[in-house]
Amino acid sequence: xxxxxxxxxxxxxxxxxxxxxxxxxxxxxxxxxxxxxxxxxxxxxxxxxxxxxxxxxxxxxxxxxxxxxxxxxxxxxxxxxxxxxxxxxxxxxxxxxxxxx
Length: 101
Fold this sequence. Notes:
The protein is α+β, with helices and mostly antiparallel strands. The protein contains 3 helices and 4 strands. Strands 1-2-4-3 form a 4-stranded antiparallel beta sheet, with helices on one face. Strand 3 and strand 4 (66-71) form a beta hairpin. Helix 2 packs antiparallel against helix 3.
């Protein structure tokens, strides 16, 4: 089954269940803050493992105590698809499991 880009209205509905996430320049984006570097690095490592399982990857930016996530689907011209919403939900589950809101 081919993946299709979502309309902006579909993306906005999908974001209703993803507090802290937003649409910026055809990408779903979210930032997380942590008390220190190791906690931030743990999120990156766990997200990387989940992305490998899903076969869909985001761009992750690791700072001292911050992680930035940015995701879209390259195979449809860098647009947002259902795959991106699913990945965002998975990342939120991981973050909540680490006590990050």
